[in-house]
Amino acid sequence: MKIYLFLLPAAILFGCQQNKPAQVPETVKEEPRPADLPETRKGMIKVTILYPNGEGMHFDMDYYKTKHMPMLQRLMGDSLKAVKIDKGLGGRPGEPVPYLAIGYLYFERLSAYENTFGPNAKEILADIPKYTNIKPVVLVSEVLQ
């Protein structure tokens, strides 16, 4: 009888630790906001703007978020389908952050990017020194997934 009393708590503890998916009531699930989920799909063009870290580099994220990116949205109009920004926090363990920020611009076609950037290039490039002393690296790519 004493053995069974000893094993009962262990059996209860083991039974409670089974890997069961958490059941979240429908009313508790938070719906994603449309602004947080740009419509991106295979075949779109993504322009990635990387701001590498380095000695003496600075980046004003507040200006980038509240002034520069809204300016791009205004200048590029409906051609610009989505905008996203990443703030660099770290790299490999023990190494400094490789990029202070990364911006993403999404377009339906390459020509949409070229036709909206070209005429506005002077204004866009003139704004860069207002938030950073970094020369950005630009990658134009096609979304595959």
List its traits:
single chain; 145 residues; alpha+beta; four-stranded antiparallel sheet; 4 strands; 21% strand; globular; disordered N terminus
Write up what this structure looks like.
By secondary structure, the protein is of the alpha+beta class. The chain is built from 3 helices and 4 strands; from the N terminus they run H-E-H-E-E-H-E. The chain has a 4-stranded antiparallel beta sheet. Helix 2 packs across helix 3. The relative contact order is 0.22.
Distance between the termini: 61 Å
Give the low-pLDDT segments.
1-35
Radius of gyration, CA atoms, in whole angstroms: 24 Å
Largest sheet: 4 strands, antiparallel
Number of strands: 4
The dominant shape is globular
The SS-based structural class is alpha+beta
The number of helical runs is 3
Strand arrangement within the widest β-sheet reads 2-3-1-4
**Percent of sequence in beta strands:** 15-25%
Percent of residues in helices comes to 25-40%
Reading the helices and strands in chain order gives HEHEEHE
Multimer state = single chain
User: Mean pLDDT across all residues, rounded?
Assistant: 83
